[in-house]
Amino acid sequence: MGVSTLLLGPIIGDWVDNMPRLRAAQEALVLQNVMIALCAGFVFNLLEFGPEIEEWGQWASIAHYVLIIVLGTAAFLAHIANTITVERDWVVEICDRDEDRLASMTATMRAIDLTAMIVAPIATGQIMTAASSKIGALFIAGWNVLSFFVEYVLLLKVYYSVPALQKDKDASTESSAENSFSPKQNSELVESMGQSRTLMTASARTKSVKSHSKAATENLEFGDKQTSSKLQQGQENNSCWNSLQRMFSGVTIIVEGWKTYARYPVMLSGLSLALLYMTVLGFDNVTIGYAKMQCLTEFHVGLMMGGAGLVGTLGTFAYPVMRRCLGLPWTGMVALTLQSVTLSICVVSVWLPGSPFDLEHPDSTGMSCEGNSSSSSRNVTRAISALGDEGNSAGMETNMTSISVLMAGIIAARFGLWIADLAITQMFLETVIESERGVVNGVQQSLNQFLDLIKFVLVIILPKITQFGLLVILSYGFVFSGWVLYLVYLVRVPRSIFVKKTEIDV
């Protein structure tokens, strides 16, 4: 998914820019829900008929896995298109380009997303626990089919209730290039130049007929044939050039997309946001796997994920207030500072009791978690009760100080993280012109996924539990680099850029 987004992000954004608003949202929504439903269907098929599929041969199982990956990736790309369309374009027009309303609406939408991120795993987890994974797959497929109709109706209702969304993008876009012609002016200019050339040619030919003999006329006819041959050759060359352009259109869109992204002053803030994605200090699969190896059960991990979602939701509520009091640029600065401070606790946890960090003995397995399972938390309870029992060697084996401090830092950092994300996102919403919102945000998505991809590469290079401390330190280094880059942006970009709508020079 990361590689596909890295390569296709600008292309998806360009597609959104060149599509009518409603059609882009409709197609993205259809593709997203259909792909998820099909993916869940193949998962169910693999779980229910696994032995029968294996009887067909190994190729059948491999085909199922490939289809699941392809459909999941396609659903993720459709999700990106839907996000760019609704959350990066529609929302600006719905708020009538009012900064205060924009802050409140983006914060509300993010709070809804975070709430869904808390509720969805709990609901699906309960279904899979009470029934089975097969029933869970069917539930996900059915949910996406049913929710599609609700989403589609709501989408139409919003579109037809906001007149600004029904206008053509070019018609309502503020011009960002001084002394440039509009498309209509350019077409009129080309047409006028063509008519002028035609009149001049006709006049010249009339004079030539009147002043020259029959031999001159024959020469003119020969010249016309020669000109016709050149024109035909030129048309063939143009046809080849157009074919090459179509062949490499994707590459051209990507290159032009990055150039467009680099023109905007908010590029530095976008880079600082992307650096936050190179981290294991979040509740992704890497950190959850490490937590389980540190004797935390799924139950405790679920509680911590819920706590992180709650702290992040509090950040979305605080964001509009902070923006009004501090202004948009300084809100981002304060948020990134809060995140850096709280994540420093995670760095400290690397050297606390119970940490498996040991570069001298990389093959050490760390704690012993015998009997640890999702259905029982007795071992974790005993481990927590052993905190501080330095004289007891068994207590040392299950010392939870390090992992507890690590998780506390990750949870606390959610507050600053989501405020920073909202602030930087609004900077793009306020400064990027309407006709380029898609491609610019597509490039930003590519940057985010690129840094996320680097994280997984580092995990492959440093896979052992004793090396996880290095990943924590590297993650904090990237987060702090994002803070430094944002500080540079804050110094270089005048605050007045967010006081009124900006027109950038192209």
TrEMBL record:
Q: What is its main location?
A: membrane
The UniProt record lists the keyword Repeat: no
Please name the GO terms that the record assigns under molecular function: iron ion transmembrane transporter activity
Q: Does the keyword Amino-acid biosynthesis apply?
A: no
Matches recorded under InterPro entries? Ferroportin-1, MFS_trans_sf
Signal sequence segment:
none
Tell me the membrane topology, using the record's own terms: Multi-pass membrane protein
Q: What keywords are annotated for this sequence in UniProt? A: Ion transport, Membrane, Transmembrane, Transmembrane helix, Transport
The similarity comment for this entry is:
Belongs to the ferroportin (FP) (TC 2.A.100) family. SLC40A subfamily.
Query: What is the recorded name of this protein?
Result: Solute carrier family 40 member
